[in-house]
Each structure stands twice: as C-alpha cells, then as structure tokens.
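Continuing from the previous page of notes. For each protein in this section, the sequence appears first, followed by its structure tokens. Read the first protein now.
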Amino acid sequence: MKVTVEKNEKVANMIFASIYPLYLNRLEKNGRTKEELNQVIKWFTGLDNDDLQTLIEEKATFRTFFQKAKIHPNAHLIKGVVCGYRIEEIEDEFELYKQCRRMEKLIDELARGRKMEKILREEKK
C-alpha cells in the first residue's frame, strides 16, 4: 500500500495520549507490562518516563511526539509489515508515518512475546 499526504497528516495530528492506552491494553492482555512498553519506546525515541508523561498530559500529537524524539540509530533495522504497509517501502517524504509504523512494529513484537533483546535491535558485528 502507498502512503498518501492525507494519511500522513491524519497520523501526524493524532493525539499520542489517546493511543498510548491502546498500546498498553494490548500488551497487558498478552502478559506484558507498562515498564516493557516504556522501555521499547525509550529505546526507539530516547524519551523517558517523565518525557512520556509530559507528552500525555500535554495531549501532544504524534507530530510533536516525533519532533521531541531522538530516533535510535538502529531504527533502520526495523522491517516488516504493519497494517498492510511494508515499513522499508514507505517513502522518505513520509518520515513521520514511517516512524509511527516502526514504533507499532516494536510494540507488536512485544505483544507477540518476542524477547526484549531481539526487539531492541543491534547491528550485527
């Protein structure tokens, strides 16, 4: 599937605080914890628990969320399909959408019981 400008803007304007509880509920149903969710988000974005709480309280959009993030240098290793979109085929002009899908991929892997050391990707030496 192709990302459109409209789809990118729709995601950019979504409120992180409205989506975070959905991520958490999904993970908790699968026996994972809030701490694990925050660990994955911190690895990917550099945002710690205090940063996340502030963004939730401010009702920040995903645009603001990713503007404040410092994306991990190994984020390019996150590949696969999320919601019908192959992450590595999302065009660079839709960077925000790509980052959102990468984060969802990590959360999906966590929900499916993947080991944390596999989720938090490292370059092969």
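Done with the first. The second protein uses the same format. Note its length before scrolling.
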Amino acid sequence: MKYMLLIWNRPGFTEELTEQDRTALFGEVDEIMKELTETGELVGGQALANPSQTLTVRLAGGHPEVVDGPFMESKEQFAGYLTVDCDSPQRAAEIAARWPDVRFGGALEVRPIMDEAGTEM
C-alpha cells in the first residue's frame, strides 16, 4: 500500500538551529531517504517552497479567485511530502516518527493513497 507522509513544520525553525544542528538534521533526512531507497519503499517526495510564494484559488462571488498566500492561517506550514510503499500503516507511521522535524515541533500526517478505483473510501 502507498502512503503519503505530509510534512508539517514551524516556519523558520531551521534558522533557529546552529549550523552543526542543521547539518545533523539534514544528515538524518539523508539517512532515512537512503534507507527507504535501499529497501525499495521510497516512491518519491519533495520539499516545498516558502509559503510566501503560494497562490490559492477560492470561489468568491461565484467565480474562482486567485489570491496570494497559503489557504489558511496556521502555526505550521506544509513543508513537503514523501510517498512510500510499505506493508502496513504501522510501518508508514514508524517512518514518519523518525523524521527529524517532529522533534522540533513539526508533525507528519500519514495518509493512505487511494487506488484509481477509490475502493479505500
């Protein structure tokens, strides 16, 4: 089963870290990615640009309207995602629990990805 691990973190938290701590954090991410690649569980993933570069489309006055900025106010920002293919939701949660952003106030949301038939709903 494939799972999307949605990475949420506090804006700017990496700037609060020392250079040594930042290097260690990114090293942990690299280790996890290497492991997931070696086990064949990594499907893909990307970091996202700063929310200040976001556009949001909403219905306003019966018509779609494009506005600058994230779609909602939040203490956390959607910072990126991983897609993994693993045997169980517990394994996906285990991977998410190891993600270093969690130690710095972030969170990872583990969501099953529906197949094209949508039978998981």
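What the second structure shows: The helical segments are 19-39, 89-98. Residues 8 and 77 are 5 Å apart (CA to CA). We return to this in next week's lecture.
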